[in-house]
């Protein structure tokens, strides 16, 4: 008989949750469906929006939350990974789940483990556990809508038991190929698994061949498909980008990078649809659709995404962690007129390091290779040997790498390579710089 531990200390609970196995080889969603049934299918008790894509998921969630909150809605969000505290994965109106609610809900799930095992299933993996926890918590909080971010892929992701009002796929590029497939087509098909019958899809995918697959897939699901449109850039100052999108003029976002305008476009298209097809959602506000979008985008905050930690000296952190993410960052950085740009890089061991490093080497005057302490990090010496650059430095200790930049700042300083890196260095930098 499995001994059911009931937690009273939230730090012990979080440590236990994070120790659970990360990946299961799945062939169906039967286990997560059974687990949800044990709690009376909490995922069916609230309206939702489902967000998938290789990059930009968290940013789209953040844009949507900000816009929907401007409509006086109680907006839940489920995101991963966290930047500051574990609880922020599960939030309502930007406020993370309390330690008490985390403990209470987690213990409730654990109490059902004998039933799960008796049904022939293994105990929930890390992501299955926090997904169930989020669903239960949201179902108890009288929320107006939840914006749910996919973990990996879509088709067999634990979140794919919801019945959303609309689904979003931000983009498709190479990441998690060991799980999702080795071609963009295979990766796309996996992500399209979130598209439900008669449920529209918004997507920022640009490639015409991939768009054809999307159109055909949605047609077979009797679902409308909305592609994001072109935008007109007005300015791209550090800390604020301004653009026109369709009938919306002078929209401003505080998140930098042309990819962030594309992410915002996904949110705009989703709000466009909901405002017309589900107007009852917005009955708590007198603001027009245009006002909601403009105010919501302007006030969006999403830590660790080209986040300015210091203006003087200019120190920025970003969680881009794959080739496409790095490509989009350097695309923007290359437009900035600084005489000397420094990059500090660390990444996880399972990433395509060579391609990311090539992109960085072509855009920065100095590159520092370091490593964070989380167990999935790639050894800095290994990464250092992969990069060809006339001005590269190996500073293995993350604190020394931070001190080097803070004490010897260049005009432009960027820390990049992983959200795990961002999570570790953000509080250190904040403390040092104030």
Task: Provide structural commentary.
It is a single chain. With 434 residues, this protein is an alpha/beta fold. It has two domains: 10-298, UDP-N-acetylmuramoyl-L-alanine:D-glutamate ligase (3-Layer(aba) Sandwich), CATH 3.40.1190.10; 307-433, Protein-Tyrosine Phosphatase, Chain A. Helix content is 39%, strand content 17%. It is built from 16 helices and 17 strands. The strands form three sheets. It has an eight-stranded mixed β-sheet with strand order 4-3-2-5-1-6-7-8, sandwiched between helices. Strands 12-13-17-14-15-16 form a six-stranded mixed β-sheet. Helix 3 (57-70) crosses helix 11 (289-298). The protein is globular and about 60 Å long. The relative contact order is 0.11. The mean pLDDT is 94.
Percent of residues in β-strands: 15-25%
Instruction: State the CATH class of the largest domain.
Output: Alpha Beta
Radius of gyration: 22 Å
| Individual helix count | 16
What is the number of independent domains?
2
Largest sheet: 8 strands, mixed
The best one-word shape is globular
Task: Write out the CATH superfamily name of the largest domain.
Answer: Mur-like, catalytic domain
What structural class do you assign from the helix and strand content?
alpha/beta
Task: Write down the overall mean pLDDT.
Answer: 94
- Report the count of strand segments: 17
Strand order of the largest sheet: 4-3-2-5-1-6-7-8
Span of the ends, CA to CA:
52 Å
For the record, the CATH architecture of the largest domain stands as 3-Layer(aba) Sandwich
- Oligomeric description of these chains: single chain
Low-confidence stretches: none
- In the CATH scheme, what's the topology name of the largest domain? UDP-N-acetylmuramoyl-L-alanine:D-glutamate ligase
